[in-house]
Amino acid sequence: MPVGTQATVKTQSPDELEQLGAEIILGNTYHLYLRPGAELIEKAGGLHSFSGWSRPILTDSGGYQVFSLKALNKITDAGVEFQSHIDGSRHLFTPENVVEIQRKLGADITMPLDVCTEYPAAHKKASFDCRRTFDWGKRAQAHWRESPGDQVLFGIVQGSIYEDLRAQCLQEIVDLDFPGLAIGGLSVGEPKEDLLRILAFLAPLLPDDKPRHLLGVGTPEDILDAVFYGIDMFDCVMPTRNARNGTVFTRKGKMTLKGAIYADDFRPIDPDCGCPACRKFTRAYIRHMLAVGEILGLRLTTAHNLYFYLKLMSDIRVAIAAGKYACFREARLLELSGGVDQLF
Amino acid sequence: MPVGTQATVKTQSPDELEQLGAEIILGNTYHLYLRPGAELIEKAGGLHSFSGWSRPILTDSGGYQVFSLKALNKITDAGVEFQSHIDGSRHLFTPENVVEIQRKLGADITMPLDVCTEYPAAHKKASFDCRRTFDWGKRAQAHWRESPGDQVLFGIVQGSIYEDLRAQCLQEIVDLDFPGLAIGGLSVGEPKEDLLRILAFLAPLLPDDKPRHLLGVGTPEDILDAVFYGIDMFDCVMPTRNARNGTVFTRKGKMTLKGAIYADDFRPIDPDCGCPACRKFTRAYIRHMLAVGEILGLRLTTAHNLYFYLKLMSDIRVAIAAGKYACFREARLLELSGGVDQLF
After folding, report:
1. Residues of A annotated catalytic, as ranges
2. A212-214/A181-183 β-pairing
3. Mean of per-residue pLDDT scores for chain B
4. Could you report the per-residue pLDDT of B213-224, keeping only the tens digit for each?
5. Residue A28 to residue A240: CA distance in whole angstroms
């Protein structure tokens, strides 16, 4: 799902996102709580109405942002005290009020406040964070159940790179019978082999009847691997953030469009791509847009990358339905490893 | 015509511009000559092909930019020496090479190099600039005639706020039989009454069979007045630049969308406007976009302002065709003077 941190997927309109094939987008509770505020969005009728996006929305718990934006002030059993990265004002997130905030935001899928363990972390620290994440998940669920409404609340599994912690946390979350599971604390700096090891370890333990979301992952390669280990849903800023740096994804690898070699390259980014940027514009034109700082350049690279990711997921679904996912994954990984310079 | 300085009308795609009703856009020769360069655009097949805009394009002479961007180094009868505002490199514009540059850019309507007299200027200085503008216009036309192609070259009338200079310059340019006339050097800081006085003075002198372009003007009020004095065509950054500052135009005056009073205002910018921003988004949402620096906000305010200007021109054409322009102008000026706060 494309990431729409501040009630917009950067550079794109809701209509464009639909045309690109987006079926759900993510909003960041932390950012929306600070600006424009959950009350304002509630007054607007919720995020869908406020932003003009009518398909599903998932909001995260805000926990990851409090940690990653260095906004953290103090963490206790009660919750997380943090300072706004905008004006330094002090705030408190608790398992209960984070449910309330997301209720006001009006997302379809919500997340309980969790502790995203940084990497590296000792086993003892990871275990402690796991315990707190579980306690908070339980409190969030209890609070949510007081007035469940139309939203669903997923459970979050932490545990860093430790298999025993992951197994224990998963079992406890499964026992609480959330309607979906989110796996957090991966792709936070750990080696790729640890990501794959944890996913492979968890794969046989995941309940068959619950959707599985892998938070904040990842590269096209990561997604191909994670789906192999049973992951259904992803959110990641990679397609949109890379686009704004001028990096575009293709089936044959990444391309850095700011490069001088593209100055007089009048081919589309990817001749085989059906996205709005590739149907109408050349590498040379998009490079010019990026070089002179024109917004249209960011719009086009973003549209291309989102289309690429959404098409990848669509292709994955087709391959799974055909019972050919293992081969599909190998073939796509091979193609991605080729490197764009050799192939275009 | 919307201004597309760097081969894009800021924030908009070519398709969107068409949908907004744009029939022609302007490109800036000075900027395009520096980046990406006229040769590259020629290699791409010209500006239309390079930028994906298939309707007409007008390119200016670059003269105004050389003066207004303080890039000017030396001006002689031969041409203008200037330094790039980007890297300080030295360049020379002559009447002849500016024709060649615009030939490579491939615009439909081109302009000869001129001297845009700054305001205020003494009569002697304005007279001298007028003479040079005329000499350069003649040289540009002679050079253009060596291989005219499909492009047309307009003539430019200068003369600051002096009626005698304006009359003389106009007559000389008319005698050269350019296919269209551009009036330059207005809206450069002079009082509004001087703009109107010069336009009123020139009105009876303008040839009936040539389109008249007023360079770089203006506000909705200026346009209503200038059309009254016989102007047919305009270009101005006002709709796009104001949009990026959060100022939007309505029939009832301007609105500064960043204002706190719009934070929870869930109406469209203008309930009677049919633009893409007003059909789908609220003031509160657009204000949020602008407040947090999201590109979608700039896209929406720009789309609204361009739609407003293009609709104004369209309404003007209807009123002229109906023989009711004088009343139309009075009614619209009255409406615009009301001020948005009273009326929305």
Report:
1. 60, 235
2. parallel
3. 96
4. 999 999 999 999
5. 15
**Residue boundaries of the structural domains of chain B:** 14-237, 241-343
Token match 């950012």: residue? A31
- Residue B227 near chain A (CB below 8 Å): no
Question: At A69, is the pLDDT very low, low, confident or very high (cuts 50, 70, 90)?
Answer: confident
pLDDT for residue B189? 94
Of A7, A43, A292, the CB nearest to B288: A7
Omega within 30 of 0 (cis) for the link into B36: yes
CATH number of B14-237: 3.20.20.105
Q: How far apart are CA B283 and CA B258, in angstroms?
A: 9
Residue in chain A closest to B7 (alpha carbons) equals A289
| A90: contact with B, CB 8 A cutoff | no
A8-12, B32-36, B81-85, B204-208: segment of lowest average pLDDT:
B81-85
Longest dimension (CA), chain A: 62
Residue whose pair of structure tokens reads 């020629």 in the numeric block: B42
Could you tell me if A63 and A115 are in contact, meaning their C-beta atoms sit under 8 angstroms apart?
A: yes
The sign of the dihedral angle between the CA atoms of A67, A71, A74, A76 is negative
- Output the pLDDT for position A70: 74
- CB distance from A39 to chain B under 8 Å? no
Q: Give dist(CA B285, CA B288) in Å, integer.
A: 5
CB within 8 A of A87, min separation 6: which ones? none
pLDDT, tens only, B225-234: 999 999 999 9
Chain A residues touching B280 at Cβ < 8 A: 14-15, 52
* Inter-chain touch B11–A296, beta carbons under 8 Å: yes
Kindly list the residues from chain B whose CB atom is less than 8 angstroms away from the CB atom of residue A11. 295-296
* pLDDT over 80 at A41, yes or no: yes
pLDDT score, position B68: 82
DSSP string, B216-272: T---HHHHHHHHHTT--EE--SHHHHHHHTTEEEETTEEEETTSGGGTT--S-S-TT
**Mean pLDDT value across residues A316-344:** 88
Q: Give pTM, 2 decimals.
A: 0.97
Question: Does the distance separating the beta carbons of A285 and B52 come in below 8 Å?
Answer: yes
B264 part of contact set with chain A, CB < 8 Å: yes
Of the partner residues B11, B36, B292, the one whose CB lies closest to the CB of residue A35: B292
